[in-house]
Specification:
2 domains, 3 helices, elongated
Length: about 170
């Protein structure tokens, strides 16, 4: 990842997480967690003490569009990242794009996980003594239709987010 893209990505996550966290006045605290496999997660609550990996506490001044980074356990000075209006627009668009990608991935996984009918969604056609075959019920087809609609909606959301990100990159 390019060096100048990291602050923008971080700020995007902060903007997405900002409405959920409770802070004092216009201050916001977000935690960046990097697990042992390298997966990065941002949360609005302090991680448990058992967490294995790197933890970074991020304080955001919402009124100034500025993020302050302070790595837990280090005595270094916090880094302040001021954002201009175009950068803020790009950061928000990138955060929305990341959220849309995650939602699409989750919808596709739910569709894949739900592709097989459950025993309650299966009826047997034919003779029980021989030649009977399983058939999915209407409940199964309705569930699959709902899962397919969720994937389609997530794809449309991702398309809108990609267009917004492209427009923000142009501005």
């Amino acid at each position: 990842m390019r060096r100048n893209a990291r602050p923008l990505l971080l700020a995007a996550v902060l903007l997405v997480a900002a409405p959920w966290a409770a802070g004092e006045g216009d201050k916001q605290v977000v935690w960046k967690l990097v697990d042992t496999k390298g997966k990065v997660t941002y949360v609005d609550k302090a991680p448990p003490k058992e967490f294995q990996g790197k933890v970074t506490r991020i304080e955001v001044d919402l009124s100034a569009n500025v993020a302050t980074l302070a790595t837990v356990g280090e005595a270094s000075k916090p880094i302040r990242l001021p954002l201009t209006a175009p950068e803020l627009k790009r950061v928000r668009a990138d955060a929305e794009l990341a959220r849309a990608r995650e939602n699409l991935e989750a919808a596709k996984k739910a569709r894949e996980d739900g592709k097989d009918p459950t025993p309650e969604e299966t009826q047997w056609i034919g003779k029980k003594g021989g030649g009977a075959r399983p058939e999915p019920t209407e409940a199964y087809h309705a569930r699959i239709k709902t899962l397919d609609a969720a994937v389609k909606a997530a794809e449309a959301d991702l398309d809108r987010a990609q267009k917004a990100a492209r427009m923000a990159a142009i501005d």
